[in-house]
From TrEMBL:
Organism of provenance: Elasticomyces elasticus
Record-annotated SET domain positions: 4-159
The protein, known as: SET domain-containing protein
Superkingdom to which the source organism belongs: Eukaryota
Listed Pfam families: SET
Length: 343
């Protein structure tokens, strides 16, 4: 059980937020809780009758906690006109439905939605210091992914795609994902020079995603042409095909995501593990069984960062690189001597 290391307090136009009451090291379980109420479907497709039934079945204590949650109307910076005007919704109890919409979290196991008393109060940031994890057992956890100082707000990212979008693109896309407010996180409202550099990194992350996957992010509404992006990037890099520069491009993607704080879900740890392993297998295919100095330095740096991030992953690294991949890079000695078998 996590020892409480936070407090909930008002944050002006953003309603309430969660703040650290002491220094929280990276990789710390901040809170684990069970939902107040669970609904079997997406909160934007639920009917008024289902809302009423779920609410009516709550205990008196749960009703009190649910009623204390904020709504769109409680937050002066939120635009609430037409937020709930979808044809599937019967607004028989907008007071309850508003709270469900603002505070629900997707269930990782059955596609439904859950409302949590504490976890719903974490505000979004495009460069968060914590992450939420659905355990698949009708509970959710929040873990720190970087060191959080006493008095600092604890934030999470509401949508992983923000790490591939510039600030202007995020402001355009997030309302289309159902977030009817303007992001005012530290990154989006920070110094213009820092935001400009972050935008450059995130634009490149998106282009690398297209290069590797052959298509733009599925959640974006203003799609980029995969063919145009690939042609432009290959021309800039000066190579004939992406296969000629797989390791450099994967290293670039890992470094960019890492720098932007996108260490959620094990993706970055997996990137570092993949490029480290590809370097090993490439050497073996060439008949080289001791890494030359430059490759050895890169391999050791990538392996070290992989395991640093792996140690921070919630749930003991359940969402991190496969065990076989980790073992393939784990046992290589510091001098870069390779065994003759491929993993």
């Amino acid at each position: 059980m996590a020892t409480q290391c936070f407090e909930i307090r008002a944050v002006g136009n953003r309603g309430v937020g969660v703040f650290a009451t002491r220094t929280i090291p990276a990789g710390t379980l901040i809170v684990k809780e069970k939902p107040i109420v669970t609904f079997p479907k997406n909160s934007f497709k639920i009917t008024g009758e289902e809302v009423e039934l779920g609410y009516a079945n709550l205990s008196a204590s749960s009703k009190s906690r649910f009623d204390a949650l904020r709504t769109i109307i409680d937050m002066p910076n939120r635009s609430h006109d037409k937020v709930f005007s979808t044809p599937e919704i019967d607004l028989t109890n907008p007071r309850v439905l508003n709270r469900l919409r603002v505070n629900s979290n997707a269930c990782s196991d059955d596609g439904g939605y859950e409302v949590y008393d504490t976890i719903c109060r974490f505000n979004h940031a495009c460069e968060p210091n914590a992450t939420r994890l659905g355990t698949g057992r009708k509970s959710m956890e929040c873990w720190s992914i970087s060191k959080i100082q006493a008095g600092q707000e604890i934030t999470v990212c509401y949508h992983d795609a923000v790490f591939s979008l510039t600030a202007a693109e995020r402001q355009q896309e997030m309302p289309l994902w159902g977030y009817r407010w303007k992001c005012e996180c530290d990154l989006c409202t920070g110094p213009a020079d820092e935001l400009r550099v972050s935008d450059m990194r995130r634009k490149l992350i998106r282009h690398l995603h297209i290069l590797f996957n052959g298509a733009d992010l599925p959640v974006t509404h203003n799609k980029l042409s995969a063919q145009a992006v690939k042609k432009s990037m290959i021309a800039q890099i000066g190579l004939k095909d992406i296969s000629d520069c797989t390791i450099p491009c994967m290293w670039m993607m890992a470094t960019l995501l890492d720098t932007e704080g996108a260490v959620l879900g094990g993706e970055v740890a997996n990137h570092y593990a993949e490029i480290a392993n590809q370097l090993l297998n490439g050497s073996r295919r060439k008949g080289i069984y001791k890494l030359p100095a430059p490759e050895r330095v890169n391999f050791l740096a990538w392996r070290k960062r992989c395991f640093e991030l792996f140690a921070l992953l919630p749930g003991g690294g359940e969402n991190g690189p496969p065990v076989g991949l980790l073992n393939a890079i784990r046992f290589i000695p510091e001098d870069g001597t390779l065994c003759t078998c491929e993993h």
